[in-house]
Amino acid sequence: MKRFSGKSLVVLVLLTAVLLSGCQPGADATPAAESSGIVIVIPEDPPSFNPIVADTGYDSLVMELVMLGLSDIDANGTVFPELAAELPTVENGGVVVDEDTGSMTVTWKMREDVQWADGTPVTADDVIFTYESIVDPEMGGWIPGIDYIDSVEKTGDYSFTINYASIYTGYLTQFGGEQVVIWPAHYCDASQGFAAWDCGRQPLSNGPYVLTEWVNGDHMTFTKNEKYFEEGKPSIEKITVRIIPDTSVRKTMLINGDADLNMWATEPMIAELEGEPNVKVSQSPENRWVVRVFFNLAANGTTDPVATPHPILSDLRVRQAIRAAIDVDTISKEFFLGYAKPAWTEFIREPYVCDIPRPEFDPEAAAALLDEAGWKDTDGDGVRECRGCETAEEGYVMEMDFHTYAEFGEPLELTQQYIAEQLGKLGMKLNLKVVEGSILWAASTDGGIEQSGNFDIDIWDDGYAGVDPTDFIYQYYAVASAEPDFGYNFMRWSNDEFEELLGGVYTLDETQRKQDFCKMAAILEEELPILPLFTAVNADAHSARLQNVQSSANDLVTWNAADWTLK
Amino acid sequence: MSEMNQLTSINNELSNSLTESSTMSMGVWKRFRRHPGAIFGMIVLSILLVMALAAPLSPYDPEASEMTARYEAPSASHIMGTDALGRDLFTRILYGGRVSLTVGVLVVVLSIFIGVPVGALAGYYGGTVDSVLMRITDAFLSLPSFLVLILLSAILLEVKIPYLEGNSVLTISFVIGVFSWTTFARLVRAAFLGIRETEFVAASRALGGSDMRIMTRHILPNAIGPIIVEATLEFGYAIIEESGLSFLGFGIQPPTPSWGNLLSNAQDYFVKYPWLAIFPGLMIFLSIISINYIGDGLRDAFDPNKVLSKVGEV
Amino acid sequence: MTTYILRRLIQTAGLLFFLSVLLFALVNLAPGGPLSGQGQSRHIDPDKVELLKRQFGLDKPLPTQYLIWLVGNDWMQVDRDGDGVMDGYGTRLGILRGDFGFSFRTRQPVLTEIGQRLPNTIYLTVITILVAILVAIPIGIISAIRQYSAFDISVTTFSFAGQAIPEFWLGLILILVFYAWLKNPFTGDPLLPSGGMTSIDVSGFDLGDRIVHLILPVLTGALGWIAWYSRFLRSSMLDVIHQDYIRTARAKGLSNWSVLTKHGLRNALIPLVTLLALDLPYLFGGAIFVETLFAWPGMARLYYQAALERDYPVLMAVLIIGAASIILSNLLADILYAWLDPRIRYE
Question: How many domains does chain A have?
Fold first, then answer.
């Protein structure tokens, strides 16, 4: 038998490697994807085409390719009609408010030239079918404001009215936007139930594309819908959605030209892609996700801020000190690479922008506030104790848990670590916890950390979809929302004046709303139950050859897929 | 044989030689010394250990950020480069080594703590005790252990149990240890089965020795060889499991560095900053290879007639 | 033998029942739960939580949930619309009748979900194992025959190294080298694809394309097994070589090669075959890294996703199927062992 030396094998491999890398060509690598089609990479399968069921974002992404709602929202926050012929308003008579009963009737007129992919026209029957499927108590789903609706009535083949029991300010996008679409009455099997029906996974298209293949866990193929109503659109023949779990592989595929769109680009990713000639990044003109610090005003483990106030955080001066000690500019510059924009109030998006002066970063003032509040480091261990403070026993150590969630990724975790370090220098000891979002936000009955009150401070991002902040503000700041599992006021904050103002914004009077929202902003600024810090970027990375991609804070990047073209 | 699955047949081979290895002592060390791989392993592992212990001598703070020095490539001042917060990676790796090696030790201690008594009781008393204990062992062996590990650590990440909060070093060691004791139980049981009927055990019993005394003084010492070998392998196994859990995001949580979470933190940007992924992985590799060599040497030393029986399951 | 197998099967059923109770409790007691916000919405509206609880059957006490999971609810009255009035019999059959429920995430039957993924995992696993064995057998044999030769020493060193490399690290490095760094000198494309089972623009079966996509995942998955099996085979070969009957056969003047192939290899392979049967289920668990890194649409990734989103029915199904396959492969290993080695008899 021939003797075989291990050494020669190593030499051979090295030689091959050197040869191959030596031949590395320049940056003008030809894209491997077909010229008439594009490839979108996402980390996991969409559960279905019906975002109401699981709302992972991936369902909305593919839903926007094949299905239409009554209306949608563009990147600037303007609502535009899709299946509707025009948007009903008070001015054009589409919305009638009954001042006596406080009820409201909205009349929708639909386009008559939209067809399902099988040639059947899209009519008011489909809208009524969709509504009835959603409200089915057994197999239905839930959409915001659905409880305000008394009935939906057909008034013609292409028109219908929605009768609301009270004023619902979000009516324009209730059957549209990134979540809700109209389903085909003649194709979907109602007996299977809205949440589980087969047409949610093998949809009949009325949008720009048609699903032709779905290999679970691997890829989905979409081809142009020949019956799409907009003349000459879409221009791209084929869209393939590939499932690539690993973040860095998705990114490298984009660089190598194997992918054309990688949604939800993070700040470090944008910075990394900046020098790549084949890659462009589209940023949304508006930013939805505000990274914010939440304070538990009740003691850790409790939910009543009056009976068991938080020994540290229930003192406003401590909250002010924390705000003054967080260096938003450094965080933005270093971890969000300059893409994060400072935000210090809830009202930063049109049409409800309020003029609140920006707070200053001032660690010395922060230290002074803590001293004043009676928190001092008397034993020299670097951590303050209660020495004459009003909220805790004498000698209580200023040490707290500081949560965040893991899915956001590195920038938020680095931010958490950095803030803890900054506050640590100030003499406030924070123990870092990184948990899954599903655990942070779960109901108290399922052991959710926030709802159960099992936290001191946490940091994460939230913001409202669409253009109407009313529900969002109610869920976070209303007294009723402070009850565990009834809302997200897990700060357990309450303010009588704010509560009254909140009751008044359920109106269609825009001037009134703008005024009231800004009064509410002033109260929040005074009391600081939440510290808005900055907006995380809303962006999507795409190949240079893919044109007209517009990232949007109001929807998934595929919202205007019909307008995309290839260079 | 019938009631045990074959996994243990490999272990049985190990314990078959128990009676021979009762005369261990000087011979073991002599044979161990002649195993070049084992000596290599000892040297490398000792270096890693000393480095981990000497971590505080590093001029850099493992947790303090340095905003002007983020993502620096390896250089003279930072021999392994710096991470996302500008922290010296070499220093972080030294501290991470403490954590990873501690996990290894804790897992071994825990699995010996559970496995040895279980095996001893089952082997010594036999009968019902034996079958109950072995049924439990079987149940543990029947679980797809890594999948359950993922689930358990995902759960424990949030359960509030004193000392086991938030996937600390202790939690992760506990989770891994709970699934690692079965091999010890089977090894020790086999040893006890073989020895309890021998004359000298009967003699001590006749002399009025208590069961406890007979077990710990007379039988257990004979099983020391295989236990040590298995402990060595388990040590390496635990380090790999911890890093695997970290890779999936369920391991020890930052800012406490472990080799596993240093590697997983580097994963998102490994194309641009490859050193962040290469060095922690290299440390895991070096420690496992030396541990395996030591285990191999120990096996040969305890059991000179066997060339090789088993090297970790990973 | 038949009685023996029968007895083992009954024990298996008992063990699985015990494990299912244990796992059901573990899975369902986990904090978080499937009813919390994820992806787009940070929170889930309280009204929606009520609805989902009812649809998922989570509004019932845990023992009832387990009972339904095990034997179904088509024999009991259920309240489908949440108005407190019973509406008729349920539709679940329970796992004993092959109904693993539906996935909370996709509302698809769990068996459909698993059915879409399991073949891919088996496909990759079988090829990985085949490659591992085909490489390990000659390596193991040669290094046993030429014990302490240069080949033996380098192979032994390699196998120690192979077992010490964490799989996910190896995968990362391979992607780095073969996808990000090295380019095909003729086309300028990356040398190897980063993942997936096939190229998206290939329709039908293309052997070349399949092989190209297998290289990195198989290499990542197989390295540890090559190391482990070659070491194992080397040692069992050495055992056999030192047996008396081999010495006798040699003394009788039979050629070295025929002695080794006729007597040695056969006896050395017996433990390997049984070991293989034992290792198969572990390969599924370990596939999680390969499947995640190389975008392989397999079952381990399905499990990982389910663990993140607390998709109880999927978690339960994968765990129970996993446990059953481990127990059955143990049985298979015992039977194989007896069949291959006539010296072993089970009463």
Answer: 2
